[in-house]
């Protein structure tokens, strides 16, 4: 058993406090990771605030984990002590259902085990990456390519894969018009990845305040959604829209931007239901879809893709005592573009 330092939240309205948690004894296929950096995803905030339903407190969030292997179980074959590794939003799944067999463990028919706010196969609540160590079965650990710094690697484990997967699935490529709604943690990754896949990329942000960054990250066009003309100018243009917004938006207005057979994929996951007028879809055979992170094999593929294309998130590294402040700033869309906790400050 390893005792790990951690930052936990005791309830939906409470601030973070320093604590210690225990990580299980290594099973034969387990890897012990010394966490170096943990990204702050908006999902951490939804969960910590109880917006996605009741959770077990105290809760240690964090599913954008980058660190170093410091011990391995007796039958581990993929990793050695000293390897640079990452862990994302899930730490286990059944491995036998049809979806796991396809490498889509995030859609495990028996339910994947989330990195935090879940229950593992030993019946213990899972606790996430705002901590110094974690124990994970080797099948749910990925390798961080040498040319990606560990602090920049962390956000790829959720923001990176959550945008790579739908862009790949829905065919972002040369000749395709892709729009990204929201220039936050996920959005600024979507821009870089869609651009590297060869698509023509448009950012739809609330204002033009981050336009320069968007263009520098690879966007071809940048529009403000608080300007009604935007929706007239761009009507019927996009093959694919990736909506990363963490709150409700007027979906019908965005459907009107899709071309014939275009698809709007929601990766943003607000706690409240979204409403839509089906006529917005019927009119031009449009689709509305959702997508959740990506499988383990695809996560490794995404990391290798980012390494090859020199793609990395823009991050602000913070000490652990600034998590509450970081949450407030994410809620105010005041982050460029991902907070990453330096876990040496726990
Ligand atoms: P984030 O950094 O806060 O980015 C969200 C962006 O949405 C903001 O930067 C802002 O962009 C825009 N936005 C926020 N409030 C808005 C509003 N009221 N109206 C219009 N636009 C608004 O959050 P994130 O970490 O990227 O996560 C985004 C969402 O994806 C969250 O709901 C999160 O839970 C979800 N998520 C889903 C998955 C999945 O597997 N599907 C995985 C990870 C995260 P602008 O300032 O550019 O307008
Ligand atoms: Zn996340």
Write the layout of secondary structure elements.
Layout: E1 2-9, E2 16-23, E3 30-39, H1 42-48, E4 65-72, E5 84-87, E6 90-92, H2 98-101, E7 113-114, E8 133-137, E9 142-143, H3 150-153, H4 159-169, E10 177-181, H5 185-196, E11 200-205, H6 211-216, E12 221-224, H7 229-233, E13 238-243, H8 251-255, E14 258-266, H9 279-282, E15 287-290, H10 296-308, E16 315-318, H11 323-331, E17 338-342
Parallel strand pairs: 10-11, 10-13, 11-12, 13-14, 14-15, 16-17
Antiparallel strand pairs: 1-2, 3-4, 3-8, 3-17, 4-5, 5-9, 6-7
Helix pairs in contact: 4-5, 4-10
The protein binds NADP nicotinamide-adenine-dinucleotide phosphate and zinc ion.
Please characterize this protein's 3D structure.
The chain is α/β, with parallel strands linked by helices. It has 2 domains: 2-149 and 313-345, Medium-chain alcohol dehydrogenases, catalytic domain (Quinone Oxidoreductase, Chain A, domain 1, Alpha-Beta Complex); 160-290, 3-Layer(aba) Sandwich (Rossmann fold), CATH 3.40.50. The protein contains 11 helices and 17 strands. The strands form 4 sheets. Strands 3, 4, 5, 8, 9, 16 and 17 form a 7-stranded mixed β-sheet that branches. Helix 4 (159-169) packs across helix 10. The longest helix has 13 residues, at 296-308. Bound molecules: NADP nicotinamide-adenine-dinucleotide phosphate and zinc ion. Residues 41, 43, 63, 89, 158 line the site of zinc ion (ZN).
Brief synopsis:
This protein is an alpha/beta fold and 346 residues long.
